Amino acid sequence: MLSVALIAVALGLSNLAASVAIGFAGVDNRLRREVAVTFGAFEAIMPLIGLLLGRRLAESLGGVASHLGGGLLILAGAYAIVHARRASHADAPRAPRRGRLIVTGAALSVDNLVVGFALGAYRAPVVLAALVIATVSVAMSLVGLEVGGRLGSLRQRWSAELGAAVLVAVGVAITVGVM
Questions:
Q1: pLDDT greater than 50 at residue 70
Q2: Residues 27, 143 contacting (CB under 8 angstroms)
Q3: How many domains does the chain have?
Q4: How many CA atoms lie within 13 A of 63 on its CB side?
Q5: Among 41, 60, 84, 112, which residue carries the largest CB count within 10 Å?
Q6: Using DSSP, how many helices (H) and how many strands (E) does the chain show?
Q7: What pTM, to 2 d.p., does this model score?
Q8: Range of the domain at 21
Q9: Phi-psi sector, 124: left (phi>0), alpha (psi -120 to 50), beta
Q10: Mean pLDDT of the chain
Q11: Alpha-carbon gap, residue 164 to 46, rounded angstroms
């Protein structure tokens, strides 16, 4: 079970970093709830899907999963940078729309798919592992939101660009295998 906890923390680091980026635009209870539900659902469901798809697909998808998830985050961050640059600097940064939050949650959880394959291969209690991973990821996401919210209020003018840049950085880190 210690290995599942360590896996959960490792997977939760990308959620923490992405949540810091999201929090730059400001944090309220609605955003906390949406991030917790979205990220938690993806973090719990993807290992289960991985288990169902099987070990054979895991071998063929293996290294591509990190690149796919990282690439999606880079694209989401780049889009957010372009959007933030087009917006008037007088506009207050806004929390991400639900669709972008879902894409981010999906991108962050692609590696969980591979974890599900591995958990199935090692006969770990997958449902319990998925719940542990989701719980840790939600907790780390909520901490990230608070950190991002505090940092964003310090530099309100550049918060949208900075938050998007963090998303790009997380995507690059996932793609090259640092996270």
A1: yes
A2: no
A3: 1
A4: 2
A5: 112
A6: 7, 0
A7: 0.68
A8: 2-176
A9: beta
A10: 76
A11: 25
